[in-house]
Design a protein that fits this description.
The chain has about 220 residues and is of the alpha/beta class. It contains 8 helices and 12 strands. The strands form 3 sheets. It has a 7-stranded mixed sheet with strand order 4-5-8-9-10-11-12. A 3-stranded parallel sheet has the order 1-2-3, covered by helices on one side. Strands 6-7 form a two-stranded antiparallel ribbon. The two termini are about 20 Å apart.
């Protein structure tokens, strides 16, 4: 973005863990964000409380997308596959300490990651947050045998959970059937992500891997 541009039309937070939302605390101080998409599950982390306070103080349009919903970005389609209303209802609760729009959970907040596709000029990108194998299996089984099975098929797949073994499954990878797999991961991270299991899995399916720890920003130039 040009240095003089201080406006962001849309910000997306896949789920409420600090390695995903921490940077927004600084972005909100510097930029004018119009709309903010967020998973519905609350975090009691003080930094997340600060984030919500900044969003409300600035009057940002906070939206909580769910499975089955669609949206538009610059005239292009976004389709949400997770989390579902039923999963949220069965695995969350609200109490006096919870933000009025959000809910608490005893599960790992990774399981509530926003999973959605964004199609632009005929190229489909599938975003998965830090979704666990259990959640990806739910999506795989939900799609099997249905006419909408092809909706998860993508050209570019954001590999879940930084390439951790607690993420991508063979079944989900075959369902998505991407040409490229993008792994967002820190250089020399203490978790040794991405794991050999995931890299081998991608290689066996002939997926071209792009990694932020090796290449920095990953940019795809999509022609009109």
């Amino acid at each position: 973005m040009p240095f003089y541009d201080r406006s962001i039309e849309l910000a997306i937070l896949s789920h409420t863990q600090k390695d995903h939302f921490g940077g927004f605390l600084y972005i909100l101080d510097r930029y004018d964000i119009k709309k903010f998409w967020l998973s519905q599950v609350y975090s009691s982390n003080r930094s997340f409380t600060d984030l919500l306070a900044k969003i409300e103080t600035k009057g940002i349009d906070l939206q909580l997308p769910k499975a089955g919903e669609t949206a538009e970005i610059l005239g292009e389609k976004v389709e949400f596959f997770w989390p579902s209303d039923s999963f949220i209802d069965q695995n969350t609760f609200s109490d006096s300490t919870t933000h009025r729009l959000l809910r608490q959970t005893g599960l790992d907040t990774n399981d509530f990651s926003l999973i959605f596709t964004f199609a632009v000029n005929g190229i489909k990108i599938l975003f998965t947050g830090d979704a666990s194998p259990q959640i990806l299996s739910k999506l795989s089984s939900m799609s099997l045998g249905r006419q909408d099975q092809s909706k998860l098929k993508s050209d570019i797949l954001k590999i879940p959970h930084h390439g951790s073994k607690n993420g991508l499954t063979v079944e989900f990878l075959k369902l998505a059937d991407p040409t490229y797999g993008v792994i967002s991961v820190g250089k020399n991270n203490p978790f040794a992500h991405p794991t050999k299991e995931i890299l081998n899995m991608l290689e066996s399916q002939n997926v071209k891997v792009k990694r932020t720890d090796i290449e920095g920003n990953i940019v795809f130039k999509i022609k009109n």
